[in-house]
Amino acid sequence: LEAKLGGASEAQAALQTQIEAQEAARRQFAQVEQQFDREEARVLRESGSVLIRMVGMNFSSGQAVIHPDHFALLTKVKQAIALYPGAMVTIEGHTDAYGTDESNLKLSQERANAVAQYLLANSNLPAESVQAVGFGETRPIANNETKEGREKNRRIDVVITPAK
């Protein structure tokens, strides 16, 4: 009986540790979420990662240039990343559906590279913890048939994967 109860208390302790870790993750997520206005970014949870969809940062058609008016938003992104020491950060670039698949893939990679370079140049992030990936037009979040939809699809998503 004591052996069985001992196993139960170990399981209970493990469960308590797991609950505490989940609560800490919820608090971190809430901190990130509170940093952004709805016009700046949507903060989502995705398979243990935090996704920051920067709705307030769009690129001009065919361009991969970060406009100075987006620097404040990128500063908030840096602060959000800082809440996750040792995390892996993936910068995902996206385009609208206009243009060829090849040119959109190249452009989305250039957009992701521009944001990754900005973050690396303006923070203490180790280069090996940041990767930039271009998805072209393959992951739209809006209708490419409207001007507004195309603008929403020309975006950057930042995925923060916490260290284990």
Structure description:
The protein is an alpha+beta fold. Helices cover 45% and strands 16% of the residues. The protein has helices at residues 2-35, 71-82, 101-121, 147-153; strands at residues 42-46, 49-53, 88-93, 130-134, 156-161. The two termini are 35 Å apart.
Q: Topology, please?
A:
Elements: H1 2-35, E1 42-46, E2 49-53, H2 71-82, E3 88-93, H3 101-121, E4 130-134, H4 147-153, E5 156-161
Parallel strand pairs: 3-4
Antiparallel strand pairs: 1-2, 2-5, 3-5
Helix content: 40-55%
Strand content bin = 15-25%
**Mean pLDDT value:** 89
Instruction: Report the order of strands and helices.
Output: HEEHEHEHE
Alpha-beta content class:
alpha+beta
Number of helices: 4
Q: Give the N-terminus to C-terminus distance in angstroms.
A: 35 Å
Radius of gyration: 19 Å
Shape, principal axes of CA atoms:
elongated
Low-confidence parts lasting 5 or more residues at pLDDT below 50?
A: none
- Total strands: the figure is 5
Keywords:
elongated, 164 residues, alpha+beta, 5 strands, 4 helices, five-stranded mixed sheet
Quick recap:
The chain has 164 residues and is an alpha+beta fold.
